[in-house]
């Protein structure tokens, strides 16, 4: 059963400027693995990380949407606890840690990333196994 969806769009050029700014909050938003992967990709670090930022935001939106009319329970700065990893063929998956991993332990997350011109986008579906009815 789908319990939440999230989508986010990022303008790559603007994101790149913010990423390069001294003292940027984006410095701590990415895991060492995401930074390492970004450095090894052609096409630029900003392009790669913009899609990862969109995925992190889409995860938060999907989770938030699954809690409609309920108080948020996650800390403000959880982006580093949401990691985008890829398999050998470049297919993305979300790896969670910290508080968000505990809250979403019984959920399955589906993610897709895309780039078009100066835009990076991510779409996330949050799914929970249907509970049997008594």
UniProtKB/TrEMBL annotation:
GO terms for biological process, alphabetical: fatty acid biosynthetic process
Annotated Pfam families: ACPS (PF01648)
InterPro entries assigned to the protein according to its UniProt record, in alphabetical order: 4-PPantetheinyl_Trfase_dom (IPR008278), 4-PPantetheinyl_Trfase_dom_sf (IPR037143), ACPS (IPR002582), Ppantetheine-prot_Trfase_dom (IPR004568)
Binding site for Mg(2+): 8, 57
Native species: Mycobacteroides salmoniphilum
Catalyzed reaction equations: apo-[ACP] + CoA = holo-[ACP] + adenosine 3',5'-bisphosphate + H(+)
GO MF annotation, one: holo-[acyl-carrier-protein] synthase activity
Keyword Magnesium: yes
Family, as annotated: Belongs to the P-Pant transferase superfamily. AcpS family.
Primary enzyme class: transferase
Species classification: Bacteria, Bacillati, Actinomycetota, Actinomycetes, Mycobacteriales
EC number(s) on file: 2.7.8.7
Protein name stated in the entry: Holo-[acyl-carrier-protein] synthase
CC cofactor: Mg(2+)
Compartments, as annotated in UniProt: Cytoplasm
Cross-referenced NCBIfam families: pantethn_trn (TIGR00556), PRK00070.3-1 (NF000831)
Signal peptide: none
Function text: Transfers the 4'-phosphopantetheine moiety from coenzyme A to a Ser of acyl-carrier-protein.
One CC-aspect GO term: cytoplasm
Key words, A-Z: Cytoplasm, Fatty acid biosynthesis, Fatty acid metabolism, Lipid biosynthesis, Lipid metabolism, Magnesium, Metal-binding, Transferase
Domain 4'-phosphopantetheinyl transferase: start-end pairs: 4-103
